[in-house]
Design a protein that fits this description.
By secondary structure, the chain is an all-alpha fold. It has helices spanning 2-23, 30-38, 40-72, 74-80, 84-98, 101-127.
């Protein structure tokens, strides 16, 4: 899966650079790349997959944000009869709508940096405690269980 994701990212980067050189436009979106390189019918399929993926991510964020709000404000939400997911969506919507584009971009960049630092810290701490020999030990290899691990 990681090889596929890496190759996909590199191919998208190459396609973006080629289209930037051809068109002279610095910021091309993924949907525009679909249409210009795949044609109308395949572009429609790619666009549907793109929207489905982002809809699924949005649902996951709202569900988890709602759970977090229910834990942070249990009395307020119970007294008002409001669902945590609705409360989270309302707060996030008002914050995003009232903030400037520049402020949203700065907050987003800061949060992405925070995620990257947290991930690298966890990997760095865990690397010292990992049993690297267990990765290649034949007693830990079970290829017959690979299909049960796929997120389907």
């Amino acid at each position: 899966a990681y090889v596929y994701m890496t190759m996909s990212g590199l191919l998208i980067a190459e396609l973006t650079l080629n289209r930037m050189v051809q068109t002279g436009k610095p910021g091309l979106g993924l949907l525009e790349l679909y249409e210009s390189s795949l044609g109308k019918s395949w572009s429609s399929l790619g666009t549907a997959a793109y929207f489905f993926l982002h809809y699924a991510v949005m649902v996951a964020y709202i569900a988890q944000g709602g759970k977090n709000m229910e834990q942070l404000f249990p009395g307020v939400l119970e007294a008002s009869g409001m669902n945590g997911s609705i409360f989270f969506t309302a707060i996030a919507s008002v914050a995003l709508f009232s903030a400037s584009t520049n402020a949203v971009e700065k907050v987003n960049n800061f949060l992405v940096l925070g995620v990257a630092v947290a991930f690298m810290s966890i990997v760095g701490i865990a690397a010292g405690h990992a049993d690297w020999g267990a990765l290649i030990d034949t007693s830990n290899q079970h290829p017959e269980q690979v299909l049960s691990c796929l997120p389907i």
